[in-house]
Design a protein that fits this description.
- Helices cover about 10% and strands about 45% of the residues.
- A six-stranded mixed sheet has the order 1-4-7-8-6-5.
- The two termini are about 30 Å apart.
- The N terminus is likely disordered.
- By secondary structure, it is mainly β.
Length: about 160
C-alpha cells in the first residue's frame, strides 16, 4: 500500500541564504549523508517498484509519481554496499536533475539541516570506496561525519 508523500517544494528558492546550505539528510547502511534541498522534490514511503528489463544493476526499477515515471536508483548497489534481504521498508527521495526525476532508495530519511557554508569541510583525501566519487564535502555532527553528496556524481551511472 502506498503512503502519502511529503513534498519539500514549499521552501521558496528566494529564502536560501548564501551563507548557509540546506540539506535533506538520510542514511544508507550506517552512513549519514545529505543532498541539497534544491534538488529534492519529494520524500516517499513504501512504493511499488516496477522492474526495468536490461537496466544496470543500480536501477531497481521505476515508480509512478503522480503520472510521471521515475527511475529508482538502489543506493546500496550504487555504493557497493551489502543488500539486506529481509528489508522492505525503504524510503525514497525523489530528486530532480536537468528536468528529469530520479528516486533514491535509501534506508531512512532523517531531517533537513541548515549548515553554515563555512563549516562544510573538504572531502578527506583518504576517503574510500564509492563515497569518494560522489562526496562534495563533509560536515561534522556530534559523533559522526555527514557526507555531503553531489547529485550529478551520484546519478553518473
Amino acid at each position: 500500500m502506498q503512503q502519502p508523500s511529503v513534498s519539500l517544494t514549499a521552501i521558496p528558492e528566494s529564502s536560501y541564504d548564501t551563507d548557509t546550505v540546506m540539506y535533506v539528510t538520510m542514511r544508507v547502511d550506517k552512513q549519514g549523508f545529505g543532498i541539497e534541498v534544491k534538488h529534492v522534490r519529494d520524500v516517499l514511503r513504501q512504493q511499488k517498484i516496477t522492474p526495468i528489463p536490461l537496466a544496470p544493476p543500480e536501477v531497481a526499477g521505476s515508480l509512478n509519481l503522480r503520472g510521471r515515471i521515475v527511475t529508482v536508483i538502489d543506493l546500496r548497489k550504487r555504493l557497493d554496499l551489502p543488500e539486506i534481504p529481509s528489508k522492505t521498508d525503504y524510503s525514497f527521495v525523489v530528486i530532480e536533475l536537468k528536468g528529469e526525476l530520479y528516486s533514491l532508495m535509501v534506508d531512512s530519511v532523517s531531517e533537513v539541516l541548515t549548515i553554515p557554508a563555512s563549516q562544510i569541510e573538504k572531502t578527506p583525501a583518504n576517503f574510500g570506496g564509492a563515497w569518494k566519487n560522489i562526496a562534495t564535502g563533509i560536515y561534522k555532527l556530534p559523533g559522526e561525519l555527514l557526507v555531503l553528496v553531489g547529485v550529478q556524481a551520484l546519478l553518473n551511472l
